[in-house]
Design a protein that fits this description.
Blueprint (H helix, E strand, L loop, with lengths): L10 H9 L8 H36 L6 H22 L4 H18 L2 E3 L4 H4 L5 E4 L11 E7 L2 E4 L8 H13 L4 E4 L5 E4 L2 H12 L4 H6 L2 E9 L4 E7 L5 E8 H6 L1 E5 L5 E3 L2 H16 L2 E11 L8 H5 L8 E10 L6 H10 L3 E5 L4 H10 L8 E4 H5 L3 H10 E5 L3 H13 L4 E5 L5 H6 L2 E5 L5 H6 L2 E3 L4 H42 L7 H20 L22 H28 L6 H28 L14 H20 L1 H4 L6 H21 L24 H16 L1
Parallel strand pairs: 2-14, 2-17, 10-13, 14-16, 15-16, 17-18, 18-19
Antiparallel strand pairs: 1-19, 3-4, 3-13, 5-6, 7-8, 8-9, 9-12, 10-11, 12-13
Length: 734
């Protein structure tokens, strides 16, 4: 092997160099989470500062004269400071990043079972907001198991296996074109049977050659290969120049049928003679190609040209830069290759459409073939646009933006066309997911919000550029990925609803109690335990909620929609109001209502323990409420989530141990069974109150909306966005 370039001088190196120039920007969810955490933290710090200042002033105004010894003063100031710190501990949502990471990590593990390998953890949640999927055809929508089912040879269209009666001279030219102009190969297995290797298209044509009598080894051994031009995704063809034993030199071309047809000026008749390819005959061949394409067949043409040996450069150095003749060819045959759709693709596409996700097919195939497959998969709709990559490429910027919104099929597309489509869709504020398998797809995979590389057919460069690898190359797995992405987003919302309720209740109780005296009912150690319930165990319980079918019946989450929805605000405010009311009644009137007896210190300790216990049970039952923020049946599927049930059970056992056996450490008092039932009843009532709250209607329009700032992997100029927005109304008029 001769090494001609390394590092950035290779195709791989150049692509990887462009990919490394990535600006690490936060995903829309990360931006929302940062905003929520900052907002809550500021409120907590403000309240803590107010409480500290208020208690500090009260101490020096009222109590300082009672005990002005330095040690007593320091002790009181430390006590006041600990009250403020307790409020900060409750308010600052330090467990939010942990909850998000747990949710993403758990989902990533589950996605592996659905044939999705996550390379970038934030891709889990971003996929749930995707509005459009640009997918390849071959191997993703289809099974990538190709067979030749039709052939137009010597003026006759033949179906099935009826390929045996070709004239010998015609068959010889076909077999030479198949055997030599191929990147695949034929070999014998240990059992003695012929096996074919190569790309699916090459395997289909080589298998057809064997079927019509090709002796692969004999043909390959009797010729001298002069020059090879490999298949090119731009030219859509491959060629080879060979020299026979007789000294005759032939150039064989193979590629997209309509492209090869344009290179021909003659064709082979049924008796093996060459006839002129006039307009009438060319139209006949075009109709044959159109008929095959309409039947969802990939059309590949074989053509040849006999050369004067003097036309071929003598030395290998000259032949290395030689451009083989591409005109005045003789059309040999046109084959129709069937690649059946994958089972379940039509249903998967329908699921995406119900979920508000636009599926677009981007393929290198003939436009008619692409349209036929798109109709078979239910991608192409009556109002959709189907065009070739060249047409899309040549549109003006204004026309391209108008067309992209309704574009459903792009045929004969190059990797640069795919990249252009992705950029255009992003200018229209779409969240774009792109599938790709080739090295040239890397820029488009990198540019998209979510790049999906194929695990089987994908190159290493494509996989390095992608956020997710689809291990089975199946479009149905992409839909499962979207489903999990939406589940991630929904689970994070559930956790935030749960956490904000805890924060508001604990903050309010301690703030009001601190305003009355330094004796707060929830001390720092108790609130640390509540934080563990809220952050670690709560995250485990709510993060492991599996995706449901209802998630795919909602539209995608707009990147500018608030993380806390109107439904969540209703649940948070309603639940917090109930808990604050009940706990304040216990704080101010608890000894009278519960008829507690004993000395004041014992009564106070008993009352604070009941408040702490009732508060924890309210959070346990509110955890069940948070499972279904917008549904009345909160117990649906709860037994299927073993992690959720385990967390509730473990938390309850630990709470009993804390109250009954760790009283010195947590400053609690043992409770009789009667007061345990009171605490349990207060917690259970929160379920009933939660159901009543859900009967209150909320407006559809968000109360708060994020600023219109573009998020994603790459920044866009604001003028482009305004231009894209201005076209929306114009496009609807058109």
């Amino acid at each position: 092997m001769l090494v001609t370039g390394v590092g950035t001088n290779t195709e791989w190196g150049q692509v990887m160099a462009t990919l490394s120039q990535d600006i690490a920007e936060e995903t829309p969810l990360q931006v929302r989470l940062n905003g929520v955490a900052t907002f809550i933290g500021k409120i907590g710090l403000t309240v803590a500062a107010i409480v500290f200042i208020m208690l500090f002033i009260r101490y020096f105004v009222q109590d300082f004269k009672k005990s002005d010894k330095p040690l007593a003063v320091v002790k009181r100031i430390v006590g006041i400071f600990s009250v403020a710190v307790t409020i900060v501990v409750v308010a600052v949502p330090e467990g939010l990043p942990l909850a998000v990471t747990l949710t993403l990590a758990y989902s990533m593990k589950k996605m592996m079972a659905d044939q999705c390998l996550i390379r970038r953890l934030p891709a889990c949640e971003t996929m749930g907001s995707i509005t459009t999927i640009c997918t390849d055809k071959t191997g993703t929508l289809t099974m990538n198991q190709m067979t030749v089912v039709k052939a137009f040879v010597a003026g006759e269209l033949r179906d099935g296996d009826d390929f045996s009666s070709f004239p010998d001279n015609v068959k010889s030219l076909i077999l030479h074109g198949i055997a030599h102009n191929s990147s695949g190969s034929v070999f014998k297995s240990k059992e003695g049977a012929w096996e074919v290797s190569g790309s699916p298209t090459e395997k289909a044509i080589l298998s057809w050659g064997l079927k019509i009598g090709m002796d692969y080894e004999a043909l390959r051994s009797k010729v001298n290969v002069l020059h090879v031009e490999a298949f090119n995704s731009v030219k859509k063809r491959a060629g080879v120049a060979i020299k026979l034993e007789t000294g005759e030199v032939y150039v064989h071309w193979k590629g997209a049928a309509e492209i090869i047809l344009e290179m021909c000026d003659r064709w082979v008749d049924v008796d093996g003679t060459e006839g002129p390819l006039d307009e009438r005959k060319a139209l006949e061949f075009k109709n044959v190609i159109a008929g095959m394409a309409a039947s969802s067949l990939r059309c590949v043409a074989l053509a040849y040209r006999k050369l004067d040996p003097a036309e071929v450069p003598v030395s290998e150095e000259e032949r290395a830069t030689w451009n083989m003749p591409e005109t005045n060819l003789v059309l040999n045959t046109i084959v129709g290759i069937k690649d059946p759709c994958r089972p379940g693709v039509r249903e998967a596409v329908a699921t995406c459409q119900v979920a508000g996700i636009k599926v677009r097919m981007v393929t290198g195939d003939n436009l008619l073939t692409a349209k036929a497959i798109a109709q078979e998969c239910a991608i192409l709709t009556p109002d959709g646009v189907a065009l070739e990559g060249k047409t899309f490429r040549n549109l003006s910027d204004h026309e391209r933006l108008l067309t992209a919104r309704r574009l459903e099929v792009m045929a004969r597309s190059s990797p640069t066309d795919k990249l252009l489509l992705v950029r255009t869709l992003k200018e229209l504020h779409e969240l774009v997911s792109v599938t790709g398998d080739g090295t040239n797809d890397a820029p488009a995979l990198h540019e998209a919000d979510i790049g999906l590389a194929m695990g089987i057919a994908g190159t290493e460069v494509a996989k390095e550029s992608a956020d997710v690898i689809i291990l089975d190359d199946n479009f149905a797995s992409v839909v499962k990925l979207v489903r999990w992405g939406r589940a991630v987003y929904a689970n994070i919302q559930k956790f935030i609803q749960f956490q904000l309720t805890v924060n508001i209740v604990a903050l309010s109780i301690n703030f009001i109690a601190a305003c009355r005296s330094e004796n707060v009912p929830l001390n720092a150690v108790q609130l640390l335990w509540v934080n563990i319930i809220m952050d670690t165990l709560g995250a485990l319980a709510l993060a492991t909620e599996p995706p449901t079918d209802e998630l795919m019946k909602r539209p995608p989450v707009n990147r500018y929609d608030p993380l806390i929805t109107n439904v969540m605000w209703r649940n948070i405010i309603g639940q917090a109001a109930y808990q604050i009311t009940v706990l304040l009644i216990l704080y101010f009137r608890g000894p009278d209502v519960l008829r507690l007896k004993g000395n004041p210190a014992r009564i106070n300790a008993y009352n604070n323990t009941i408040i702490f216990n009732a508060f924890v049970f309210c959070q346990l039952f509110n955890e069940i409420n948070s499972r279904k923020p917008d549904k009345l049946n909160i117990f649906e599927g709860i037994l299927q989530n073993r992690m959720f049930c385990a967390v509730l059970f473990v938390t309850t056992i630990l709470q009993v141990m804390i109250v009954e056996f760790l009283k010195r450490f947590f400053k609690t008092t043992r409770l009789s069974w009667r007061y345990w039932l009171v605490c349990l009843g207060i917690g259970f009532t929160s379920l009933i109150f939660g159901l009543l709250i859900k009967l209150i209607p909320v407006p559809q329009k968000p109360l708060f909306r994020m600023k219109s700032k573009q998020h994603g992997k790459h920044k866009r100029h604001s003028k482009k966005h305004s231009h894209g927005d201005s076209l929306i109304s114009e496009e609807s008029t058109v």
